[in-house]
Each structure stands twice: as structure tokens, then as C-alpha cells.
Amino acid sequence: MVATLGNPDSKPYGLHRLWITPYTDADGSILGDTSYRMPLARTLAATENEDNDTLDGDDKAAAAIQGKGATISGTLEAGGLDLTTFAIITGAQLIESGVGPSLKRTVRKRGSDQRPYWRVEGQIISNGGGDNVMRIFRCKANGKIQFDAKYGAFMIPSTDFMGTPLPGEDADFLWEIDYNATKTTLGSTPVANPLPIPTNLTVGAVAATTVALSWTDIPTANSYKVQQAVSPFTSWTAVTSGAGGEPTDALTTVTGLTAETAYKFRVAAVFGSTTGEYCTPVSATTDEAP
């Protein structure tokens, strides 16, 4: 049963909720459809790490530094948990029998049971009414899993974990932090992991009424969508297909623009019927009319 140690929603601000979502495959790429809450969230602390190689010159050291890719290490603590969540973190087997008053749950760990991948989300409420949601996409307990039984409830004071990027070349996300001006609600139905986002968006040739754009191709994308904004950049408008706004390759020329006008452009990838998030915009000012 879930430990009942007070109302976790009574916190006015600070770390509010911790949710654990399992992956259904051994590689940590297929997210499960249910998240499990850890009551009385106490700590979600994380540190990003990256090993580097240095290129030394003949007459000076560290002429260049090349990173090997980032990971993240962290600790989570909560004031209790149910056995389902404990099984997710430890990789133990969860065995159930009976219903109602006869219900029995057993978590049993074999020496050969491997610790699986899972996703952790923590909601941090600000005293101004908004929140930040920290999401580490692909975690695995890599150190101690310390648990105590005291105060009349099953406790889990501390779990050490490591987060590694999601598998895949185009969507190897490690972590994200969302800021919301108004507090959101994290529920037991998890939001999907993000789709690949176009990178290296670059402005090419610029004329009075056209701007050429290119970006790094996403092999799994079916097509792309382009949006534009005009100074003072208060809103975004979809570029029509006829004006270069729905290319199938990783380059396009946006047409029908106004001369001597400042624009911003951004691109999203389309996967089937789903459009991903738009990338960081780039700026361009069209030339003077001939």
C-alpha cells in the first residue's frame, strides 16, 4: 500500500511532487503509460558531468577541448513509497495475489535481477504561484538504494542514480526543466518524451522577398514546417506550402516576404500526423527592393 505520511499537496512552495515512470524495454526507449508518485518528496538533486579530451599544441597546453558527451548523477529522497515504485527502481519482481482485504503484494529481488531504466520528474513550486518541472529522461539506480521501515510506514530515504541520454541519434535528450507561470498538475499519465528537434538552423542567401534556410536533416521525419515572425516579433505565423513552408528536405527558400523587413524563422519536424517542437529561431533582414 502507499505510505500515508500526511498531505504532500500541503506544501506552499519547494519540492512538491516526485513521479517515477518505468520504461517497458531493456534499453530505456519505450516509456510506460503510467507514472507512480513518491509521497512527501524531499530531495531531487542532480549534477551534470562530462569527461573531456584536450588537444595539446607544440607550444601550449589545451589548444582545444572536446567533450565526450554528458551524463547526470543524482539523488532522490521521499517520505515513503509503494511497492510498485520500489520494484521499478530496484528491478525486483512484484508478485500480487488476492483482492480487497486478502490482497498481498510481494517484492522479491534475485541476485540476477537487473536494475531497469526509469524517468524521474520533480515539481518545484515557487512562492509566486508558478512552478518548475525538472525531468531526467533515462535514469538507473547506480549506487545505494537505502530504505528503512520506521514511523509506521515503509520509507525510502535515499536512492543514488545516473541519467544517460535517450537512445537514438536525433533525440538523445538527457534532461529538461520547464518553467510555468501558473502551477501545473503532474498526474499518473506521463507526458511523452520529446520528439527530435531540428538543429543548426542557418540563414543562406537573402534577397528582397526571399530567405533561404537550411538545417540538419532528421532521417525519421516525414517533412518539416516553417514559421515566421515579423518585427516586433509578437506572434508566429505558419509559412504556407506554396511559400516554402512545408519542405520534405532539410532546406527551403521562404518566398513572398517584404523588402527591408526584419524576420525570424523557426522549423519543426513532422512525424506522421504529429508535429514536434520548433527549434531556436534565426534572424534575417530582407534586402532593399531592386
TrEMBL record:
InterPro entries: FN3_dom, FN3_sf, Ig-like_fold
Residue ranges of domain Fibronectin type-III in the record: 197-289
Example GO BP: polysaccharide catabolic process
Superkingdom, taxonomy of origin: Bacteria
Coiled coil ranges: none
Keywords (A to Z) from UniProt: Carbohydrate metabolism, Glycosidase, Hydrolase, Polysaccharide degradation
GO MF annotations in UniProt: hydrolase activity, acting on glycosyl bonds
Record-given protein name: Fibronectin type-III domain-containing protein
